[in-house]
Amino acid sequence: MSLDNQKMIEEFVVESFEHLADVENDLLTIEEGGADSDPELVNKVFRAVHSIKGAAGFLGLTTINDLAHSLENVLNLVRSKELVPTAPVVDSLLRSVDALRGLLNNVNTSNEQDVRSFIDALKQIISGQASPEVSASLERNVQVGQPATAMFEVSEHLLATHRRLGHQLFVLDFDLIKDVEERGKTPLSLIKDLLALGEVVEARLDAFNLGDLSTGIPDRLRFVALIGTVVDRQMLMVEFGLAEEHIHQVADAGSASPAPAAQAAPAVAAQAVAIPAAPAAPPSSAAPAAPPVSAQDSSPPSETSKTNVETSIRVSVGLLDHLMNLAGELVLSRNQLVQTINNRETRNLESVSARLDQVTSELQEAIMQTRMQPIGTVFNKFPRIVRDLSGKLGKQCDLTIEGKDVDLDKSILETIGDPLTHLIRNSVDHGIEAPQERTSKGKNPIGRISLRAFHQAGKVNIEISDDGAGIDVNKIKTKAVSKGLISTERAREMTDREALSLIFLPGFSLAEKVTDVSGRGVGMDVVRTNIERLGGTVEIESRVNSGTTIRISLPLTLAIIPSLIVRCGEERFAIPQVNINELVRIKAGDVKSRIEHIKNAEVLRLRGNLLPLVRLSRALGLQSKYLDPVPSELKDDRRKNLADRRADEEHPTEVEARSGQERRQDTTAGALNIIVVETGQLRYGLVVDGLHDSEEIVVKPLGRHMKGVRCLAGATILGDGHVALILDIAGIAAQCAIEMPEEHGATARAEESAAQKAEHQTALLFTNDPSEQFGVSMSLISRIERIRAEQIDSVGGQEVLQYRGSSLPLLSLDKLIKAKPRPEQPHMYVIVFHLIGQRQEIGLIAPNLVDIREISTDIDVVTFREPGVLGSLVIDEKTTRLIDLSELARAAHGEWFSQQQQAAATDAGRRILFAEDSAFFRKQVAGFLSEAGYEVQACEDGLVAWNAIQQSAEPFDLVVTDIEMPNMDGYELTRKIKNDQRFANIPVIAVTSLAGQENIQKGGEVGIDEYQIKLDRDQLIAAVTRLIKRSATAVSGRNA
Amino acid sequence: MTTTMQRQQRNMAGKELELTTFYVGDLLLGVDIHQVEEINRQLNMTPAPHTPETIRGVVNLRGEVVTVLDLRRALGLEPTIITEDSRNVIVNSRGERVGLLVDRIADVVIAATDQIEPPPANVNGIDGRFFAGVYKLESELVVILDVEEALASEGASKQTT
After folding, report:
1. Which residue(s) pair with A200 in the sheet?
2. Do A622 and B66 touch (CB under 8 A)?
3. CB of B78 less than 8 A from some CB of A
């Protein structure tokens, strides 16, 4: 094949795939519409196939041409309403489209491929549904046109269609030079005009007699078109300015001579025999006739194959123009810079550099944009997958897709397809139950799967949720234990959330047997690895019989990641933010008590859990250095154990005597910087010599000599031009062979501290004005951001933060409660939280963070009480006020809450009885329960609650109770409730910090319906909603 | 035709080999000039952990992170001591840029290919496998370096002399 030809064929393939891009989904829509399908849609599919057919014929790709032709015939019948697009018909069409794709993928060998089975199947549809004359006329071709000058070959059926529509057929003979160009029109406008008048059956450009450039520009460029239209000849003459002899009306089809189509005749005869007696024969007879794809057929491409022709990308012209402009700006800036330096005009240097900085950033962003493609290109293949799989498994599934326009980097898109496919297939296979099972559970027999993509907090989130069977946590635990993945003890202690993430362990599979659909056991861990490799995270949430939701979070682009720069020895390293859990700083005096040794490994006790520690210097084989402020230089840290003192260390009490400022700064005197990092299931603490800033870095690949180093994931260039290596957290763990510490002894200690924790809360302490300390409960916080003061904008009196493309409303303490104004300082923190049921995030400005502490819940709720302040207590000899975030938000943005009340309308008026002896928790929980729309009656003891439930005129819908209460504890209360006929049906949720095995058992004995650990607000609300709904349906079931 | 063009023609005809030369200790080594991308003084290397001794570190080459090899180490000699004359020779190997740390840069040498002799089994104590040939200059010998072999070297421990 000549090079030109090859190029044309490649372009043809690319274009054909574009034509076929929407065809699948369009066919599915047509299937849903059935006989009432939108004719425009059918037309669209028809035209797509028609174009492919035409071009293929021109390029000599006969097999593609033949297959497209058969497709066209069927579509034509659908278009003219002679064929109803039922499921078997659409099935056959879809399979043929698959085959067509297969041919296009291997275009150079396509002519040798055998697609007879598909063509036969299509023909059978026609013969099965349409009358014998129709199918015969489809096969017969006739020659029509202007004899001796312009003849076209069309199917008889087409002629008949036009006749039926009342069209006349004309051959219009144009000279593109005279009739178009000289009149100031374009060929495109001519075609548009033709299409406006009727239908263009065929058209031809007579370009073959033109010769080459040496013979000069031709004086005539002939273009003939065969059109079917209701317009008469006179009108055509006027419309196109054609002379009479250039418009030839084709006489009725009767006088058209049959085309010498050799293969058509015997095929027709064969078809005539195969036609079933009644034309209204059920279409199912056509479907089973469609043979399964045999081995030698060009098999339809599997869902995971990639088009290898597609190495190009589509970019909007607007974006390219923008890039050109920026390139121009860059040149100008560069010229300015060169000139400034040459002329030694140092005054200008700052502004020139600022301009260069800005242009470079804009250019970088614009270039990254060119790689962004809408996620819809990946989502588009799922309706078909769901349809086919549901059919195969005998289930009924409805897939809704949202957020097709969300853009993602091309390389992420390419990799995300497989994991998503796996997850969707899981939903259909394991999630959605069979229709009868669903009906018996009181669910709609049609399962709903929703696929949603949206932007949030600078990331792209993808949510796949189904309302299916959910995942049974106990089954997971049992399976994991039986496979030896975890110990029985660990299984007992695990929270549901931890148990669900067991699914991501390699080798784990819940399926009873391996089907070829899913369950090979290679699924979920590969999914998570792939997603994490892209810098993303995946979480799973599930409730038995309610359904499962999987949340994937992806960075907008691979190449730039937020990271934390740390120091080890003299070198700087970067740790990707996605791996960082929290930062812990241990003061010298505390080191000995908090660092323990288990089997020669150093571990840190962090809020009751043991965290294995890794010294980065050891992992990398570097010399650890500490920063001695006097003089400011790095000295070798020669300690063998972290808990040892360094030789020149001061006595700890002297350390305390220094000012707080100095203490915060120093890394000497034995203080430890530990970064709690996480990857997959593994969580450990990385001890580093020092911390630098958090930065967004550009990831650069390492050369081949460095590929084998496990600890490194890449490199980046810092602002000063130095190279900083990026740490591979999983690699370091592998390098140091980290094991999660064995639990022996640890269990007892964990329970001990849990008991101690009984009435404690974890709170984040911070200061606004340095003299005033405040605290916020950790359970309400989504995340903490460190920002620059200038990132805060004031818009219409409201402060907002522009952060990574989104706008975050900010609350300023001193504007809402009695507090001193916040200090002017360049950097601050923002505590980000969101209110129940609202996706809107809010930030509370916290200029300086102090610590995260366990605080007692015995607080003073009188002295400092005001809207937004729960109460106060003394911490570190400072009066610390506890902030109620939702009250604060309500005070600032009352208008948001009215919406919320409406949202809670479904559960409006539901009454909850709440028993809790701690004033602090009572306020908190009652607060957000009522915020969620429930009517709450709070009691400070079990006995009070028991009396309340007996005396109450209206019944309660749910009881939430603490366990440890003075006069009557939670067990007793539950027992009384469940043993009393009047109240036995009321669900009881226990909110407690005691969740050891014996407690749960006892709870089960008295009839507690669910255990919630103090204090996870979202989980509690979800449990309340769920249990109320469940008992409501049970009640209605009984009453029915 | 000018002499440059003549030279280019001879070069392209395979009659001549243009070599960048540099010193590693007392040894004068040469590398085909087409393989050398640049020579610079980027000696501010970031050390890389867990890499073989031959790797000195990485440098920032206009936005690209380039691995730098200690050529002395690669050839089995004592590690390079960086001086004012030390240079980084950036070569193109299999589509990737790699740096070679050398002691001193010397002149460009035009070698007539028919005068290049096969290397001995051992030069100054270094295994002959690193060399592709020798070329006699007036006063000394240019030993032509096999770059790929050097890059693949794992250092002194692997040397068997």
Report:
1. A227
2. no
3. no
Distance CA A105, CA B109 (A): 52
Would you call B14 an interface residue with chain A, using a CB distance cutoff of 8 Å? no
Half-sphere exposure of A314 (CA within 13 A, CB side): 7
Q: Give the span between the Cα atoms of A958 and A955, in whole angstroms.
A: 9
- Classify residue A767 as exposed, middle or buried by CB count within 10 Å of its CB (0-12, 13-18, 19+): buried
The label of the residue with tokens 């598909």 reads A118
Residue A620 touches partner B, C-beta closer than 8 Å: yes
Chain B nearest CA to A692, separation (Å):
17
Classify residue A1011 by burial, with Cβ atoms within 10 Å: 0-12, 13-18, 19+: middle
Residue of A717, A726, A732 best to disrupt the B interface, most CBs of B under 10 A: A717
Q: B50, B88, B96: which to substitute to probe chain A, counting the most A Cβ within 10 Å?
A: B50
Determine whether the interchain pair A705/B69 forms a contact, defined as Cβ–Cβ distance below 8 Å: yes
Longest Cα–Cα distance of chain B, Å, equals 54
The beta-carbon neighbor of B96 closest among A571, A704, A716 is A704
Instruction: Find the distance separating the first CA and the last CA of chain A, reported in whole Å.
Output: 76
Q: To the nearest whole number, what is the mean pLDDT of chain A?
A: 77
- A-proximal residues of B, 83-122, CB under 8 Å: 94, 96-98
DSSP string, chain B: --HHHHHHHHHHTTSEEEEEEEEETTEEEEEEGGGEEEEE----PBP-TT--TTEEEEEEETTEEEEEEEHHHHTTSPPPPP-TT-EEEEEEETTEEEEEEESEEEEEEEEEGGGPBPPPSEETTEEGGGEEEEEE-SSSEEEEE-HHHHHH---GGG---
What does the block give as tokens for A1010? Answer: 């669910």
Q: Do A706 and B51 touch (CB under 8 A)?
A: yes
Contact A621 B96 (CB under 8 A): no
What are B124-141's pLDDT values in tens digits? 888 888 999 999 988 899
A728: helix, strand or coil: coil
Distance CA A763, CA A855 (A): 7
Asked if B60 lies within 8 A of A724 by C-beta distance, the reply is no
Tell me: the pLDDT tens digits for A835-855? 765 667 788 999 999 888 888
A700/B48 CB distance under 8 A = no
A457/A36 Cα distance (integer angstroms) = 43
Question: Helix or strand or coil: residue A924?
Answer: helix
Between CA A575 and CA A675 the distance in angstroms is 10
Q: Which residues of chain A have pLDDT under 50?
A: 1, 253-310, 512-521, 646-668, 741-758, 899-905, 1040
Partners of B74 on chain A (C-beta within 8 Å) are: none
Give dist(CA A752, CA A399) in Å, integer. 48
Phi and psi dihedrals of A447, rounded to 5?
Answer: -75, 150
**pTM, 2 dp:** 0.45
CA dist A78 and A27 (Å) reads 11
CB pairs under 8 A between A and B: 69
Q: For residue A411, give the DSSP letter.
A: H
Q: Which domains does chain B have, with CATH numbers?
A: 3-155 (2.40.50.180)
ipTM summary value: 0.86
